Automatic annotation (TrEMBL), chain A:
This is Amino acid/amide ABC transporter ATP-binding protein 2, HAAT family. Belongs to the ABC transporter superfamily. InterPro entries: AAA+_ATPase, ABC_transporter-like_ATP-bd, ABC_transporter-like_CS, BCAA_Transport_ATP-bd_LivF, P-loop_NTPase. The lineage of its organism: Bacteria, Pseudomonadati, Thermodesulfobacteriota, Desulfobacteria, Desulfobacterales. SUPFAM superfamilies: P-loop containing nucleoside triphosphate hydrolases. PROSITE patterns: ABC_TRANSPORTER_1, ABC_TRANSPORTER_2. The keyword Transport applies. Transmembrane segments: none annotated. One of its GO terms (biological process) is L-amino acid transport. Pfam families: ABC_tran. Residues 3-249 form the ABC transporter domain. GO terms for molecular function: ATP binding; ATP hydrolysis activity; branched-chain amino acid transmembrane transporter activity. The keyword Ubl conjugation does not apply.
From TrEMBL, chain B:
One of its GO terms (molecular function) is transmembrane transporter activity. Its main location: membrane. The chain crosses the membrane at residues 15-36, 56-78, 90-116, 136-155, 176-207, 213-231, 238-257, 263-285. Keywords: Amino-acid transport, Cell membrane, Membrane, Transmembrane, Transmembrane helix, Transport. Belongs to the binding-protein-dependent transport system permease family. LivHM subfamily. InterPro entries: ABC_transp_permease, BCAA_transport_permease. GO terms for cellular component: plasma membrane. It is a multi-pass membrane protein. This is Amino acid/amide ABC transporter membrane protein 1, HAAT family.
Length: 249, 289
């Protein structure tokens, strides 16, 4: 198993955001995590890549209250539950955050370089850049444009491109389709499929269930912090209750 | 007169730029409003006074040592008085005010309220378009500009500079790029205090050294940062020269009215804010959580 999460529980103050979640991702898979708004999908990713722990550290003693983080996260055979976020990236577990969040005042090139922060001195830096430009030609055209002025779709391409520059073994992508026009959404999903064909394992968090189920091999369904169903996408679709209640199809 | 104003405005602007850029860097990266910033500028000036006048050491050695020691002091202050309460905005603000006052009182206790001075690094004067300008003023201007150019190079072209700018943009996402945000904050603090102490070292021969010498630069720096737009480096740079020249104009055109310089600076700030509330180069802080 590339990623193995067991009994993950996250509470912000008294609110239980994630309740005893276990999931795993095997090498080469594209696994999706779906569920309604507020189910805790983003929090699962944030807990895996150390951002909940970062919150816990930085918000200690503030009015935000106490954060509880329990459970075990194994990546590539190593326990990373106690590893700080900036070291997790080094191991090849890369998180492309919700709402894209490019560094808005930096140019496209600088954003990609920030993604390559840990690999700046490697000889094949330019090759990696070229790979990203081949995947997203629009980024190559806008190299010196300040990223805050890009369109939503372009910012999403940039966020994914930046994540690729961090050289992921496993790429966690959080809601890439949010706020995009239908055509652009399809484009983004096509690119994600292309990235998978490059041999990068992907875990995709989405609300756009119809598109995701077409690509993913397996899926987890999350609702109010719990995993209520999991398995092959086809099997999930056959379950009438799950399909109607949670997938909205 | 015109040349006087020009040279004086350039020097004041450059020194304010050094101070305001340092202040903005830390504000951007760690969300710290460091009121003690100009108190560290004062510390550097006092250290140079001690080195040259009391211990009789060579001026250059004193400058380098003073800058180094001030950075060290700044990092200690950051680690013990600011970092533990960094996320409590009000507490952090009060803590930095306290540190500034503390430094002021310490210098008052040691040196008294006397007006002290330091010899110029170089003597003589040059004549520019018929106006005598001391070489020390030109040296100060030259040094300030060299440092400003180096800072720009550091921020725009180095890996650490990229980490600083990324962290200032979005601390949380910077983590996801493998940047150690705590480490970046320390480096930024060192650069920021370094700029303040360099500013102190550059102007010390031109100003009187006394325990409240940090107040006027503090007011100017805050006005500059608000005028330029909170957290914007370009804004701090441009704002510094605007208020630097404004101050020179007041001092030279109203020989009896130089007490008005703070008032004029703050008036300019208010006028700009009435038209552009986000400042000249307004940056909207990204919502992080």
């Amino acid at each position: 198993m590339l990623l193995e999460v067991s009994n993950l529980t996250v509470c912000y103050d008294r609110a239980v955001l994630i309740n005893d979640v276990s999931l795993n991702v095997d090498e080469g898979e594209l696994v999706s995590l779906v569920g309604p708004n507020g189910a805790g999908k983003t929090t699962v990713l944030r807990a895996i890549t150390g951002l909940v722990a970062w919150d816990k550290m930085t918000l200690k003693g503030t009015s935000q209250g106490d954060i509880t983080l329990k459970g075990k996260v194994m990546f590539n055979g190593k326990d990373i539950s106690k590893t700080p976020a900036h070291q997790i990236v080094k191991m090849g577990l890369v998180h492309c955050p919700e709402r894209r969040r490019p560094f808005k005042e930096l140019t496209v090139k600088e954003n990609l370089m920030a993604g390559a922060f840990l690999h700046m001195k490697k000889a094949d830096l330019q090759d990696e850049l070229d790979k990203v430009f081949k995947l997203f030609p629009v980024l190559g055209d806008r190299l010196n444009q300040v990223s805050g002025t890009l369109s939503g779709g372009e910012q999403q391409m940039l966020a994914v491109g930046r994540a690729l520059m961090s050289r992921p073994k496993l790429l966690l992508i959080d809601e890439p389709s949010t706020g995009l026009a239908p055509l652009m959404r399809q484009e983004v999903f096509n690119k994600i499929a292309e990235i998978r064909s490059l041999g990068i394992t992907i875990m995709l968090v989405e609300q756009e269930v119809a598109s995701v189920f077409g690509m993913a091999s397996r899926s987890y369904v999350l609702s109010t912090g719990k995993i209520i169903a999991q398995g092959a996408c086809d099997a999930l679709l056959e379950d009438e209750m799950i399909r109607k209640t949670y997938l909205g199809l | 007169m015109l040349v006087d104003i020009l040279i004086d405005g350039l020097i004041k602007g450059s020194v304010y730029a050094l101070l305001a850029i340092g202040f903005s860097l830390v504000l951007g990266v760690a969300r710290i409003i460091n009121i003690a910033h100009t108190a560290l500028y004062m510390t550097s000036a006092y250290l140079i006074y001690v080195g040259t006048k009391i211990m009789g050491l060579p001026a250059i050695l004193c400058m380098v040592t003073a800058i180094f020691l001030t950075i060290l002091l700044g990092l200690l202050i950051y680690n013990f008085f600011i970092r533990p309460i960094q996320e409590h905005e009000a507490a952090m603000l009060i803590s930095t005010i306290a540190v500034g006052m503390m430094l002021q009182e310490v210098f008052l206790m040691i040196f008294g309220g006397h007006y002290l001075g330091v010899e110029p690094l170089i003597g003589g004067y040059a004549t520019i378009m018929g106006v005598r300008v001391t070489n020390q003023h030109l040296l100060a201007l030259g040094l300030a500009i060299i440092v400003l150019v180096s800072v720009r190079f550091f921020l725009m072209k180095t890996r650490t500079g990229l980490a600083i700018r990324s962290t200032a943009n979005d601390r949380e996402v910077a983590n996801l790029m493998g940047m150690n945000v705590t480490g970046v904050a320390f480096v930024t603090m060192a650069v920021s205090v370094g700029l303040a102490s360099i500013a102190g070292a550059i102007v010390v021969p031109l100003v009187t050294v006394e325990p409240t010498m940090w107040m006027h630069p503090l007011i100017m720096m805050l006005a500059i940062v608000v005028l330029g737009g909170l957290g914007s480096i370009e804004g701090s740079f441009v704002g510094a020269y605007i208020l630097g020249f404004a101050e020179s104009l007041v001092v030279f055109l109203l020989p009896n009215g130089s007490f008005l310089k703070d008032a004029v600076a703050l008036t300019i700030m208010i006028l700009v804010l009435l038209v552009r509330p986000e400042g000249l180069f307004g940056v909207s802080f990204e919502e992080e959580r």
